[in-house]
């Protein structure tokens, strides 16, 4: 039985609680922690949990019976809580984004390695069939190498979204939509294509004059033999998120679509329907996932603990995403192309370095403790 402590009992923690409750024989929530302990207490009551409530994560560290600490706090404390938990001999699953800087990511990886515990960073969209299928299709070699990737991380958030106390500041949110929304799609891109060698980028705040951070960024990434475009946005009506790869033999995309071309003798395109059918049949042949989204990833983390196996989404994966986002910020802020990988003596390696250089597009002018209402998780990537 895996005994779980959840740190941070706000909006996203409900997805975690509901996931653990799907596995009653395998795990038990034994502790809830929040700096506003009334929220943890309410969660305990609402879900009828048999657990202890704490107001400080330090208080769970001496407990020897906790196997897994699940970090659901705002980004600026992901690293400190994760490092403390790992050092106290507990496995950690941490919400996205992994941390506010590469320096913090490296501290988490060091604590993981020194403790021998497991660390996984949430990227629940990898546990959606269309995204898993896209990765499998790329790996299959059916469509050949990627020549162009188009990542549309299109979201829409109203003005008041940034009134929540920790959002809208470089210090506590760590950045804007590039870090906190496009993190999902940048994880997918890194999973499928790895890190680019160079990035150029522009950042803007077009619609949220109550936030320091960007609500729109447009970046171009260079890979060996390919280019990628990443748009991160919270100003796109309809939130039509998509990832499209133009490969040597065909286009493939999530939501699923494919189009394959062959060359006529004059170089003009001729549709290759045979390959399109093969691509579609390959995707159809892939089995469904036993659990999707948060339940899928938390099932994987628990399996890794139970079998002493690897987690599917590692600390290195989380760090790679932060490295690309840091490069996007550096390129957008300096106005110059940025080469990857970033070095440890790079001024943008630390959260302080970013803070000293990041523009305040606007000043945060409101701060509320909580916003009420349900949240959504973006596209389901099903072909419409
Ligand atoms: N995976 C996803 O799709 C997804 C969706 C939404 C949010 N998130 C991420 O989840 C994290 C939390 O976001 P949220 O929307 O739930 O925020 P939230 O403000 O609703 O909840 C955060 C909770 O953490 C508590 N907290 C803050 N500092 C703490 C500390 N030091 N120790 C213990 N508790 C602390 C707050 O009191 C609050 O209850 C963020 O990193 C966010 O990016 C992920």
**CATH homologous superfamily (4th level) name of the largest domain:** Dihydrodipicolinate Reductase, domain 2
The appropriate CATH architecture of the largest domain is 2-Layer Sandwich
**Main β-sheet: number of strands, strand sense, barrel status?**
9 strands, mixed
Low-confidence sequence ranges: none
Number of continuous helical runs: 11
Bound molecules: nicotinamide-adenine-dinucleotide
What is the overall pLDDT average?
A: 97
Query: Strand portion, in percent?
Result: 15-25%
Enter the CATH topology name of the largest domain.
Dihydrodipicolinate Reductase, domain 2
Walkthrough of the structure:
With 384 residues, this protein is α/β, with parallel strands linked by helices. The protein has 2 domains: 2-124 and 292-313, Rossmann fold (3-Layer(aba) Sandwich); 126-290 and 320-357, 2-Layer Sandwich (Dihydrodipicolinate Reductase, domain 2), CATH 3.30.360.10. The protein is built from 11 helices and 15 strands. The protein has helices at residues 13-21, 37-46, 78-87, 102-115, 129-140, 177-180, 183-193, 273-285, 293-307, 315-334, 351-357, and strands at 2-7, 27-33, 52-54, 68-71, 91-94, 119-121, 146-154, 198-204, 216-223, 226-233, 242-247, 250-254, 257-263, 269-271, 338-339. Strands 14-13-12-11-7-10-9-8-15 form a 9-stranded mixed β-sheet. A 6-stranded parallel β-sheet has the order 3-2-1-4-5-6, sandwiched between helices. Strand 2, helix 2 (37-46) and strand 3 (52-54) form a beta-alpha-beta unit. Helix 1 packs across helix 9, helix 4 runs antiparallel to helix 10 (315-334) and helix 7 (183-193) packs across helix 10 (315-334). The longest helix has 20 residues, at 315-334. It is globular, with a radius of gyration of 21 Å. The model has no long low-confidence stretch (mean pLDDT 97). Nicotinamide-adenine-dinucleotide binds next to loops. The site of nicotinamide-adenine-dinucleotide has 24 residues, from loops.
